[in-house]
Design brief:
Elements lengths: L1 H9 L1 H30 L3 H17 L1 E3 L5 E4 L3 H9 L4 E7 L4 E4 L18 E7 L2 E10 L8 E8 H53 L20 H46 L4 H24 L8 E3 L1 H11 L1 H6 L3 E5 L7 E3 L1 H17 L6 E7 L2 E5 L7 H4 L23 H12 L2 E5 L6 E5 L1 H4 L2
Parallel strand pairs: 9-11
Antiparallel strand pairs: 1-2, 3-4, 3-7, 5-6, 6-7, 8-10, 11-12, 12-14, 13-14
Helix pairs in contact: 2-5, 6-7, 7-12, 8-10, 10-12
């Protein structure tokens, strides 16, 4: 159960629903707070006076006048007439002049304002205490008469009628708010579920498509037509990974086929020699065994160089590695009557990489250069601040062959007679090592001989 809850919160559906629920709760809390502030906690003074002011304005609009413009009768609006009739003791109207003298009044028997009550009219609303009772008074100006006389209509209301009116207005609003919340929350949740279903359908389809991709159909790609825009980069990156995987799988298939072919040939020759000649030609058999051993050894080196976890990166001095390689290949150079020279920079250099891998890379480059150098030739290994280079004085590499020089099992159209038959993997191993370190190994065109250049990351930034 604990794992189920944890996985639910990690899912996109769970997170969206949780965020939506939190948002709904926040909205409900805010609306409830606003409602409580407006209808419960807020001082009702402004609301009460605005209500009485509106009643006075409506009544003033229905005021009837005499021919000289003086008020003759106060007529209540039809939509408020029942209110006046139901509460004759709680509301009263009168018309006063500019000095506050009463010119006309309604409900003279139930007086909220005494007959002798007089005050200069002030447009607006006010709370009064008359004979110990709270009275609210709203005053509006009546349009002037033709003679220029000013009249004002005053509406007086008791405290209880205003409280009753507010209560009557408050309860429907409260009920409407609660009803709106109860209805809107399920509707919003339903809409969110529909949106989630629509949003997650392309993801489920994409997951189903990914589940059917295996070694037999690596060429398949995930569709991105109906995927949400935010997930398109992820699907695109996954398709690129599939493309790289397909390419790597194809290369491995080609590699296995080529390796089987390369090992099959010497085995066939050895079997034929044994069947036809027995063990008489011992030297030929030993040479074939050496060729096979060399091919197997290079295959193992290539497999190791292709795996990143086989490297142990640490600071190393390329000069000391180069000196070790020259000592290791000194006997091979003597057999071919080739001189090995080393050119080092004046300052000490440190590279970050695998020392044994750099040893293998230099050994393969120099061994290849020695085997293709003429008698008395010189092979130069130069190390500088931007990388290293290996130059020989052999026949060089034709331009039409340079593009294939790092292909696995590819061999040139010529071989030194004294050189053992290779598998065409030495330069491929060098390229794998360079790629694993972020270096760049390439061949440079020269007028004579072959020149291989290894650029370190520092040189690539220049």
């Amino acid at each position: 159960m604990r794992w189920s809850r944890h996985s639910w919160f990690r899912s996109l559906r769970g997170r969206l629903l949780a965020a939506f629920a939190a948002g709904v709760l926040i909205v409900v809390a805010v609306l409830s707070s606003v409602f409580m502030f407006i209808f419960v906690w807020q001082d009702d003074w402004t609301a009460r006076h605005r209500m009485l002011q509106d009643i006075a304005t409506k009544t003033a609009d229905h005021l009837e006048r005499n021919a000289d413009g003086s008020p003759s009768r106060i007529v209540q609006p039809q939509d408020l007439q029942w209110f006046y009739d139901a509460f004759p003791r709680d509301i009263e109207f009168r018309v006063v002049d500019a000095q506050g003298r009463t010119a006309l009044r309604v409900h003279p028997r139930e007086q909220l304002l005494p007959v002798d009550f007089q005050r200069a009219p002030v447009v607006g609303a006010a709370d009064l205490q008359i004979n110990g009772a709270a009275v609210q008074l709203a005053t509006v100006q009546v349009p002037d008469t033709p003679a220029g006389q000013s009249y004002y209509l005053e509406a007086a209301a008791s405290e209880r009628i205003i409280a009753m009116a507010q209560l009557a207005a408050r309860n429907p609003v409260r009920g409407s708010l609660v009803f709106a919340l109860l209805v809107s929350i399920p509707v919003l949740i339903g809409l969110m579920l529909l949106a989630l279903k629509s949003l997650l359908r392309p993801l489920r389809d994409t997951s189903d498509a990914a589940a059917h991709i295996d070694a037999r159909n690596l060429s398949a790609r995930l569709p991105i037509q109906h995927v949400p825009t935010e997930l398109v980069p992820l699907i695109h990156a996954f398709n690129q990974a599939l493309e790289r995987l397909e390419q790597g799988f194809r290369v491995q298939q080609q590699f296995l086929g080529a390796a089987a072919h390369e090992l099959k040939t010497p085995l066939t020759l050895m079997r034929g020699q044994i069947e036809l000649e027995g063990t008489a030609d011992r030297d030929t058999l030993l040479m074939d065994i050496d060729v096979m051993a060399r091919q197997v050894h290079q295959l193992l080196h290539l497999a190791e160089a292709s795996e990143a976890h086989n490297y142990k990166f640490a600071p190393m001095a390329p000069a000391s590695v180069a000196e070790e390689v020259l000592v290791f290949l000194s006997r091979l150079a003597d057999r071919h009557s080739v001189q090995l020279d080393l050119q080092l920079p004046t300052q000490t250099l440190l590279w970050h990489g695998d020392k044994s891998a750099l040893f293998t890379l230099l050994k393969n480059l120099l061994e290849n250069a020695v085997q293709h150098s003429p008698v008395g030739g010189v092979v130069m290994l130069s190390i500088d601040t931007t990388g290293l280079s290996v130059r020989d004085e052999g026949p060089g590499i034709a331009k039409e062959h340079q593009a294939r020089i790092f292909e696995r099992f590819w061999r040139g159209t010529y071989q030194q007679k004294a050189a053992p038959q290779g598998a065409g993997l030495g330069l491929s191993i060098c390229q794998e090592i360079a790629l694993a370190h972020g270096w760049r190994l390439h061949i440079v065109d020269t007028s004579s001989g072959a020149l291989f250049r290894l650029d370190t990351p520092d040189s690539l930034h220049h």
